[in-house]
């Protein structure tokens, strides 16, 4: 295991602040797949998602030296990825929202998995964008409620309300009710 793999984000950022290029490369390696997956949710285009990856880390690199991490790095990167993705999608004239969350550039699934994926995509698409965004940040990206609040720059109560409403809609939908039953 490489030394950088054992270091926390905070330790790598401290090293990057002191000019250690390998520390920044380790952060890039740690978060590139997440950034591409998130960008793909917004752009629905692999090439655009890869461009957003590059733009995101150029933006992030510009914060050094002097960058201070005050939350999870995902919390800091999320707004940049979202805004860069939206800008790229609008330039191309194809912005339609968050996109299909289940399309995170997966391998070829089985027929049963494909059917479940299509069902999930339709249900997620039916949610209002704000609720869908909070739901995905919580359960796909694994952010805590406070981190979602910071990333979206909305009050914690709004995050809780959106998550509650999204889960309620999914729980009440006949297509997903089976996932909520004991």
Short synopsis of the structure:
The protein is 70% helix and 0% strand. The chain has 182 residues and is mainly α.
Distance between the termini: 41 Å
Q: Do you know the CATH architecture of the largest domain? A: Orthogonal Bundle
Structural class: mainly alpha
The CATH class label of the largest domain is Mainly Alpha
Q: Which fold name fills CATH's third level, the topology of the largest domain?
A: Rna Polymerase Sigma Factor, Chain: A
Oligomer: single chain
Strand content: under 5%
Q: Low-confidence parts, pLDDT < 50 over ≥5 residues?
A: 95-108
Topology as H/E string? Answer: HHHHHHHHHH
CATH superfamily of the largest domain: RNA polymerase sigma factor, region 2, helix turn helix motif
Helix content: 55-70%
Description:
The protein is an all-alpha fold. The protein has two domains: 1-95, Rna Polymerase Sigma Factor, Chain: A (Orthogonal Bundle); 110-176, Arc Repressor Mutant, subunit A (Orthogonal Bundle), CATH 1.10.10.10. Helix content is 70%, strand content 0%. The chain is built from ten helices and no strands. It has helices at residues 3-6, 9-17, 21-43, 46-61, 73-91, 111-126, 129-139, 145-152, 156-172, 177-180. The radius of gyration is 18 Å and the shape is globular. Residues 95-108 have low confidence and may be disordered.
């Amino acid at each position: 295991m490489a030394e950088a793999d054992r270091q926390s984000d905070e330790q790598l950022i401290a090293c990057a602040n002191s000019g250690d290029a390998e520390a920044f490369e380790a952060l890039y390696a740690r978060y590139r797949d997440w950034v591409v997956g998130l960008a793909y949710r917004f752009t629905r285009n692999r090439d655009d998602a890869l461009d957003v990856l590059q733009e995101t880390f150029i933006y992030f690199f510009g914060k050094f030296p002097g960058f201070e991490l005050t939350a999870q790095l995902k919390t800091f990167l999320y707004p940049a990825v979202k805004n860069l993705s939206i800008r790229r999608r609008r330039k191309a004239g194809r912005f339609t929202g968050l996109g299909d969350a289940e399309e995170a550039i997966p391998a070829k699934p089985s027929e049963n998995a494909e059917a479940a994926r299509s069902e999930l995509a339709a249900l997620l698409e039916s949610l209002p964008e704000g609720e869908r965004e909070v739901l995905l940040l919580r359960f796909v990206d694994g952010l805590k409620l406070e981190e979602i609040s910071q990333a979206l720059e909305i009050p914690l109560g709004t995050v809780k309300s959106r998550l509650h409403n999204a889960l309620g809609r999914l729980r009440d939908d006949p297509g997903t009710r089976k996932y909520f039953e004991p």
